Amino acid sequence: MTIPLSGTHFGLSAGDYHATIASVGASLRTLEHKGRALVVPFEADEVRPAYRGATLAPWPNRVVDGKYTFEGVEQQLPLTEPDRGHALHGLATWLDFAAVDRSGSSVTFAATIEAQAGYPHRVEVSVAFSLDECGLRTEVTATNTGPTAAPWGTGPHPYLVAGDGRVDDWTLSLPADTVLSVDPERLIPIDLTSVEAEGDGAFDFRAERRIGDTFIDHAFTGLTRDADGLATVALRAADGTGVEMVWDEACPWVQIHTADQPDPALDRLGLAVEPMTCPPDAFNSGTDLIVLQPGASTTASWTIRALA
Fold this sequence. Notes:
By secondary structure, the chain is an all-beta fold. 1% of the residues lie in helices and 44% in strands.
């Protein structure tokens, strides 16, 4: 049997939900509720575009110039974002994960990030997808199986779809007080700013409002959470349909991107919502960076669900 370019596929079903997971990058390929797409999909036999649905590890977002120093040793990562000259979205996005547990509504993948130039650490990564009547939950667990401490961060990369139309047509609820300002050319982090001050309030979506033509490719923090410690980003179409993403305190950050593309056919098809355990360039700043000691594990999780 010929394996599709995006890897082996696993279909999950529960109630009105159906999802398809691709093994390359432990990627969410499709997610539907009552036949309505909740994420921008990609074809099984294509190279996954724009990191759609990928699991990001051992760092989300960027390492500026691909350079960082950890425990006194300078490291140089491959520059996987050549236009801006950064190392983008980790090392696991093109690993072919093996399915180690499977049911009709769940699948768990495992892969090992081997020690290599720029990241001389061995980390085992488990990604568990489970679907029920409340949506799709993803749980990422990292275990340091190497002999030295390892820097770690993770997050997902789905492009959420509210319903008919495109990003400009939808409203966004984003309960974040603070945004990380960046250099517009290379998206290098500069400083934390209140959402009221940055861009004259352009990034303040604490009260739900239409996105319109606002360009967003920023990390947010200072998240308002409910009594259970959960943060929720909600996206709605004009007819009231929508989608939301929920996560706990393991991810104090979220990257939001309006998916602007030069090709009109691809431009602003979905809103990237990426809960993150650490901000962009955490390998350099150290902000919320997880340091995994040998034998230690850490877990983060998030859920995507439909809004009626």
